[in-house]
Amino acid sequence: MKVKLEGFYYLKDALKYGSFSAAAEHNYMAQSNFSREIARLEETLGVKLLERTGRGVEPTHTYRKIEKKLDDMLMLLDDIEEISEKKLIALRRVSVSL
User: Fold this and answer.
1) With contact defined as beta carbons under 8 Å apart, do 84 and 76 qualify?
2) What CA–CA distance (Å, rounded) separates 2 from 58?
3) SS3 assignment, position 52
4) Helical H segments across the chain, by residue range
5) pLDDT, mean over the chain
6) Contact present, 13 and 26 (Cβ < 8 Å)
7) Which residues, at least 6 apart from 38, have a Cβ–Cβ distance to it below 8 Å?
8) What is the pTM of this model?
9) What does the alpha-carbon distance between residue 69 and residue 4 come to, in Å, rounded to a whole number?
10) H/E element holding 57?
11) Nearest to 24 by CA among 44, 47, 6
12) Mean pLDDT per 10-residue segment, the chain (98 residues)
């Protein structure tokens, strides 16, 4: 199973902003592409994570069961990204004398 990590961030954004259209706008995406990414994530995982309602989106029972682990995973990924960026900044400061 190959899952795009962006899909998890999109999932969180959909809930944060309350709708696909608002979350898509936040991510500078067309709403149709954003919706497709969420659908692809749900299809890959084999579970429905969001309920689409007339007023936006709501988390499913399945989402609520994995929410803490998802938050932990995304926090870890953010930490890794931050460490990597700090190392890159440190490497840029290295100078070599010839």
Assistant:
1) no
2) 25
3) strand
4) 5-17, 20-26, 31-45, 61-93
5) 88
6) yes
7) 7, 10, 11, 14, 20, 49, 50
8) 0.82
9) 17
10) strand 56-59
11) 6
12) 88 96 96 96 95 93 96 91 76 50
